[in-house]
């Protein structure tokens, strides 16, 4: 299967238009049509209906494979290009919002740094495909356990921080006076749905171990990345939030109650390409060394 044809197919399916895909890819519309026809001929199946432009059942199935296949190819190309890359003097870092703790920020070089705030699932992709030299990703895990990361490419992950978790509640909430809280106490509560700025609700459901898709009902949805805003929304009674203790404390009108069960921590890991060429990793090595001090 020709990856160029596959990439064209994914673009047409995403944009639902041959002409829009041609503009996006820099091809003529005729070339896009030829790519799709060649791929359908190779597979012996129709992949798209033409009016409207939409994937057939076989095309939908191919899309389930295509993203991972193309990502692996992009990661392989980026990995090999590192062998001939000139030594880097700058540092591009991709980071999920909650990974940017005060200690992590203090470890960044004083100059030559570009910081990209990305959703958690995008950070490993950015490192694997060369969009970033290093990544900082966060999540919740049992103490000392590694994070569960998508298998996008060979990456080296190193723990750089672990800290307790706390539930952010309004000061007047009935549970605000407790010394600690269990997730079992909070299954039926309303939560802020903020997958980028806080702990995603589907992750809470997973670690709680209850019936699939049950509990931790979303209240207000927040699509931003500012953790402080999320804590302010929790203080206003718009829903509960689970945050690292350092981010949960000191919010006017809010109380941060430690999570005591299950035993979980907020973990931050540094991601770098596995086996990156030594001469091309000077700034990365410097940054990693500062994080370990």
Plain-language structure description:
- With 293 residues, the protein is an alpha/beta fold.
- It has helices spanning 3-15, 18-25, 29-43, 57-81, 102-107, 122-128, 201-208, 227-235, 245-248, 282-292; strands at 48-50, 53-55, 91-95, 113-117, 134-141, 155-163, 165-170, 181-182, 190-193, 217-221, 241-244, 254-261, 265-273.
- Helices cover 36% and strands 24% of the residues.
- The strands form four sheets. A five-stranded mixed sheet has the order 4-3-5-13-6, sandwiched between helices.
- The longest helix is centred in the first third of the chain and has 25 residues, at 57-81.
- The mean pLDDT is 92.
Supply database-style keywords:
293 residues; four-stranded mixed β-sheet
Helix content percent band? 25-40%
Q: How is the biggest beta sheet arranged?
A: 5 strands, mixed
* Beta fraction: 15-25%
Query: What is the CA-CA span between the terminal residues?
Result: 48 Å
Total beta strand runs: 13
The arrangement of helices and strands along the chain is HHHEEHEHEHEEEEEHEHEHEEH
Number of helices: 10
Radius of gyration: 23 Å
Widest beta sheet: strand line-up: 4-3-5-13-6
Note poorly predicted spans: none
User: Which structural class fits the helix and strand makeup?
Assistant: alpha/beta
Mean pLDDT: 92
Looking at the structure, what is the overall shape? globular
């Amino acid at each position: 299967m020709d990856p160029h044809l596959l990439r064209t197919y994914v673009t047409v399916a995403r944009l639902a238009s041959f002409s829009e895909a041609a503009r996006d890819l820099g091809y003529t519309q005729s070339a896009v049509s030829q790519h799709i026809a060649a791929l359908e001929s190779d597979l012996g199946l129709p992949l798209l209906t033409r009016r409207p432009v939409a994937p057939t059942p076989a095309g939908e199935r191919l899309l389930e494979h295509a993203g991972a296949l193309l990502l692996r190819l992009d990661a392989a190309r980026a990995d090999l290009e590192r062998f001939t890359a000139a030594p880097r003097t700058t540092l591009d870092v991709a980071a999920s919002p909650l990974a940017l703790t005060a200690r992590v920020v203090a470890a960044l070089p004083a100059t030559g740094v570009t910081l990209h705030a990305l959703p958690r699932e995008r950070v490993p992709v950015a490192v694997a495909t060369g969009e970033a030299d290093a990544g900082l990703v966060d999540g919740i895990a049992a103490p000392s356990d590694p994070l569960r990361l998508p298998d996008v490419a060979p990456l080296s992950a190193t723990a750089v921080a672990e800290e307790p978790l706390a539930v952010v509640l309004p000061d007047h909430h009935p549970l605000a006076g407790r010394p600690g809280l269990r997730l079992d106490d909070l299954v039926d509560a309303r939560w802020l749905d903020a997958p980028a700025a806080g702990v995603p609700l589907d992750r809470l459901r997973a670690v709680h171990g209850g019936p699939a898709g049950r509990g931790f009902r979303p209240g207000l949805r927040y699509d931003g990345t500012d953790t402080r805003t999320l804590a302010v929304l929790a203080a206003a009674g718009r829903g509960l939030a689970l945050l690292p203790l350092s981010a949960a404390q000191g919010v006017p009108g809010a109380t941060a109650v430690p999570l005591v069960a299950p035993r979980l921590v907020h973990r931050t890991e540094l991601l770098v390409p596995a086996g990156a060429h030594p001469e091309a990793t000077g700034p990365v090595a410097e940054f990693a060394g500062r994080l370990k001090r």
